[in-house]
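User: Could you go from structure to sequence for me? I need the amino acid at each position, not a summary. Structure tokens:
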């Protein structure tokens, strides 16, 4: 098969033979044997030029796939005898990286001592090609035929506040009551941010306001913990605080931010990069 491909690329038996370090006669015998095996003539031969037959055209398309699969299989088999090594470049959101990804890395690097991790914390858009990123962990949308995406955990939005705030100002029982509370929000292009809720297939939009806006969820979380106001944050951000009683969830009968794209925490990588051992082992962190 390799000889056939080289002949197609070189155009003649003699040119292919020179590239392969074989005599033209040896190349001819290999092609004759291949034609006997497939039961069809693959080349039209003349004294002046050589072209592919119809069967040869079909064979040329198929054999390229077969040889690539064989190469991939050989690579996979060799990986069984190797260990992950080199630099693994990982990008994730600032809060997510500090709170949930960074704590996993010491034990991972202890197991794979030939591997180095370059952890990049940024809330900006991931640029796989420009930044040479191997793995990104964050929220959608990030789609493409060359990307592999794996969902790690669902993380719905939660409305919450501290007990201190609740004791002073009470708990809203329906979304419309949020307009009378101090709501701490992400910075927005809108003059007055909108929080959206869904209940019984009915969409409810509430304009909220407060005395603090910020770019980072951790700023809003700290302000809520201090009793300043009510926040709407992903569950992964405040799950420990709610479990410990530092924050209290609100409006449990309503689905908050129902049409957002960032409910699921996902891990992304290029399809080609997923073949590397270092990326495959990193993915296993989340099994």
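Assistant: Here is the amino acid at each position, in order:
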């Amino acid at each position: 098969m390799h000889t056939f491909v080289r002949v197609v690329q070189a155009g003649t038996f003699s040119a292919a033979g020179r590239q392969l370090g074989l005599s033209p006669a040896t190349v001819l015998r290999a092609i004759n044997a291949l034609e006997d095996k497939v039961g069809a003539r693959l080349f039209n031969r003349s004294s002046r030029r050589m072209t592919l037959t119809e069967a040869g055209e079909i064979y040329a398309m198929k054999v390229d796939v077969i040889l690539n699969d064989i190469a991939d299989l050989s690579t996979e088999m060799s990986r069984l005898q190797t260990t992950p090594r080199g630099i693994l470049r990982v990008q994730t959101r600032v809060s997510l990286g500090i709170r949930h990804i960074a704590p996993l890395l010491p034990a991972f690097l202890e197991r794979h001592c030939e591997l180095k991790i370059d952890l990049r914390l940024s809330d900006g858009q991931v640029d796989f090609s420009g930044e040479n990123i191997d793995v990104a962990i964050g929220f959608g949308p990030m789609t493409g035929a060359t990307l592999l995406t794996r969902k790690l955990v669902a993380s719905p939005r939660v409305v919450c506040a501290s007990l201190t705030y609740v004791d002073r100002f009470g708990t809203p029982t329906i979304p419309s009551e949020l307009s009378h509370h101090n709501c701490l929000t992400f910075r927005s292009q809108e003059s007055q941010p909108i929080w959206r809720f869904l209940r019984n297939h009915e969409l409810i939009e509430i304009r909220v306001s407060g005395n603090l806006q910020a770019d980072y969820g951790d700023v809003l979380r700290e302000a809520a913990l201090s009793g300043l106001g009510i926040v709407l944050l992903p569950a992964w951000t405040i799950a420990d605080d709610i479990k410990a009683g530092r924050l209290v969830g609100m409006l449990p009968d309503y689905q908050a931010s129902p049409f957002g794209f960032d409910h699921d925490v996902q891990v992304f990588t290029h399809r080609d990069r997923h073949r590397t051992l270092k990326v495959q082992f990193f993915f296993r962190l989340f099994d």
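One structural detail worth keeping in mind: Residues 193 and 207 are 6 Å apart (CA to CA).
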